[in-house]
Amino acid sequence: MTTLRDSQEARVRIEHEGLTYEGSASGPGGAANGPGVVGAATLRAVETYLRSGPVFHLEAATVVSLATHQVAVALVGWAGPQEELLSGAAIVRDDPRDAVIRAVLDAVNRPVSWLGAR
Hints:
Layout: E1 2-3, E2 7-16, E3 19-28, H1 34-50, E4 56-66, E5 69-79, E6 83-91, H2 96-116
Antiparallel strand pairs: 1-2, 2-3, 4-5, 5-6
């Protein structure tokens, strides 16, 4: 994550079967916008893996308190056969950004398995 005064950029790398796929996204600065930028970069990495155009869009990504834990939650729109909303969640272990990545991947897991099998 690169943060400038008024903006921030995230680069996310995902690995599958020994190959690495990268995505990047940028957005306005500020801690509140960080999960969204990381989430969008994750979707770009997934689309690189799928070798597709933009089929996903991030509706929201945030980290919330739940009981005594921090949990990353993601809501992703999928432009599949019909527009569909997908959700995912991941417990924050060490880095909230890592949890956002895992939450986004959790949200898109089923469509990616279908699309990747073509």
